Amino acid sequence: MATQVQERRPRPTGAADRALRRGAGRIEGLDGLRALAIAAVLLYHLRPESLPGGYLGVDVFFVVSGFLITTLLLRELDDRGRIDLPRFWVRRARRLLPALVAVVVVTIPAAWLAGTDLLVGIGRQALGALTFSSNWLEIAAGSSYFTATAPQLFVNFWSLAVEEQFYLLWPLLLALVVAATSTARTRARIALGAAGASALAMALLHTPGADATRVYYGTDTHAFGLMIGAALAFALSGGPLPAAARRWAGPAVLVALAGLVALMLTLRQSGPLTFRGGILLASLLTAVLVAGLLAPTGPYRWLMRLRPLEWLGQRSYGIYLWHWPVILVLAQAIPTAHDSAAHWGVRGLSLAVTLVLAAASFRWLEGPVRQHGFRHSLRRAAAALRSPLRGRRVLARAGAGAGVALVLASGAAVAVAPERSQTQAAIEAAQAEVDASAEEAEVVEVVEADRSMPTGEEITGFGDSIVVTSKDGLEHRFPGIMLDARSILQWPDGERAVRARLAEGTVRRAVFLDYGTNAGVTDEALVRRVLDSLGPDRMIVVVNLYGGSAWVPEANATLARIVAGYPNAVVADWHAAISARPELLQSDATHPGIEGAHLYASVVEKAFAELSERLTGVPVTLAGEPGDAPAVQPTGDPAEEASVSPGSEAVDAAGGETVAPPG
């Protein structure tokens, strides 16, 4: 099947088309731009605090793909007067499927060995990966990219699904656009109109504070980068770059590069501006960088053609596929405290394994299939298996045997995959008991300030799933404690919970608060309102955060700054305590396990003791237990004793708290 398109008037060869012809199907420098994109994504997933907007690397890929695919299709139209759709789709399959299948069949058994929690939902994930429908399958399943209930092995494949759906539909739409219009300018305007509609849909459908998975995953709401790239290809197909464009190419590229870097350094994925113009702006800046590659000369073109960048860019597809599963599997197999030396050792190992696997895939799998096709590659493999065992034939047979074993192991892993993670099961079991305890809360009256060390019957605890999973430790340490906690809660939910309990009169004289695992502290005034509502007569402990998300250091610093202004409050340094004992966390590296729950309770107890000693001057003697850790980092200034060591947040797999997800 081929799509015939009759041009309404002859079209001059554009700058992008000439670049393709000079480079035998390549535009020099695009690999360098891909390298910058994949480097941003890698840094974001290895340490999101260092590059909070590194996920924008995915949108750089979108713009590059939209530009390159449209340019190739226009070139085919110019050469042949038609688009051979089967040939186009087969080329895309050759490019995408070999590495994708390899990642799926290798990482599923590896995840099985590392821990069954990584297999939650793996059947759906594998189906979505192999059919390029991950984004819509996860939306239909109610999965959340931002508040995942389990670490998803192939969560990064959503973007591949968006691109493949574009490859499927865009050639047909492009043929219609070309047939219905006569100028490159008109076609570019149509593509820009489609991009604007997609960006507007993302902005209108996103509700600040609500989960943004639908607008982030949706092909309709996240196609504007691809269409901006297509619009650029249309615009450049109309002839040579104007003289003014060539003259201003250098400064424009510098401004665009600086702007994109600034966005990557500041645009947090959880912020409302991200979905209301932030990603769109990054895509427009990328279009300027792509156009800059078509300028005759300049330092930017030279930079993007550096051999290390070209090497990385040529393998960027495999790197993107491998890096997230590798990070998850190694993190599950080798638990470490965030930002510790061991943590960075595992992260370094993840990077090295990713690069080796991507290079091997590019050399021995992607390249041969891309060059010779599926049938020829399969015939060569079959011939190698039938030939006598010597030299490379031994390796070929060993590789084939390993491949069969991996496929069988993947099928077995999918068959035995659990429906829920162990952490999720633990939270659900504890949640029912917490709810029952909260319903039995009695009315109390706080008449005057009592600064003595509180007992369990004098403490009310508010929080999210961290408190839920710490229930056993808290009840052991504080018999009679009243807990009001639930998964996925944020500080706005905490304010509503505190006000509701105050209205009932069930808030006791000592209170601890633990919110922010899901989204940090986005409203400092809100936290102050909560503390003000509890009043100066109550003793208040605010527990800080632990993990690997970009917002956690800032959130911990904000909590310390707020609490320092309240003489009757102190910060419990959960981050420092669990950083020293990461093995006490569950497999999601966020929720405390059985011993971790007792450590958490110890942190809260020591914080109350520190606060009581500070306010009364009377020492508090606590019964030490294994796993106890300091609760407060003293600074020498009583008003500053709430200071914390900033941390960061990782995946809250079971309680719905968020992960620093792949872009």
From TrEMBL:
Domain of life from the UniProt record: Bacteria
Location of region: Disordered: 622-663
Pfam families in the record: Acyl_transf_3
GO cellular component, one term: membrane
Domain Acyltransferase: 28-359
A GO BP annotation: lipopolysaccharide biosynthetic process
InterPro entries with a match to the protein in the record: Acyl_transf_3_dom, Acyltransferase_3
Transmembrane intervals: 53-74, 95-114, 166-183, 190-209, 215-236, 248-267, 273-296, 317-338, 344-365, 394-417
Gene Ontology molecular function: any one: acyltransferase activity, transferring groups other than amino-acyl groups
Keywords in alphabetical order: Membrane, Transmembrane, Transmembrane helix
Protein name stated in the entry: Peptidoglycan/LPS O-acetylase OafA/YrhL
Organism: Georgenia muralis
